[in-house]
Write the C-alpha cells for this entry.
Amino acid sequence: MTPSQQSYDVDAALAALRGQLAPLVEATPDAVMVGVETGGAWIAERLHADLGLSEPLGTLNISFYRDDFSTVGLHPSVGPSSIEAEIDGRTVILVDDVLYTGRTVRAALNELFDYGRPAAVRLAVLVDRGARELPFAPDAVGLHIDIERGRQIKLTGPEPLRLEMR
C-alpha cells in the first residue's frame, strides 16, 4: 500500500451497521433488504444473513438511472435488477457501500419505485464520506470518513471485502 492509500476495517464497519439496523429489523420483521450493485449488494448479502431477514434479498442495477456517467468517466453497463419480494406498503432497507454526492441514492430510488411503492425506505451505508449534492441522509452508517473532493473510497470484493482510500 502506498502512502496515498489507506485501508479501513470493513468488519468493524459492518458490525456497527448491523448494530444500528437490528432494532429496525426487530420493529419491522417483514422488511425487505435491497443492495445497490455491486458494493452495496455485497454488504447487503452479509447483513441480510446476519440479521436473519426472511424475505429474499434484492439487488438493484441503477445504471439506467445514473445522471453523472459522462462527468465521472463511467461507461454504463445496464443490467437487470432483481427484487422477488413484494415491496408495496413495506419497509425497504436500501444498502449501498459509499454515500457521497447522493446521486446513487437518487438513481436507486427511481429504480426501486419501478417495483412498487414502499411504506418507507431506510438507507444503510457502509461509509458516509459527506459532501452531498442531493439532500440524502443515511439511517444507519458503518463508518464516517471526512475526506476532500478528488479522493476516492473504493470497496473491493466480494472476498475479501476491503475499503481503500486513494
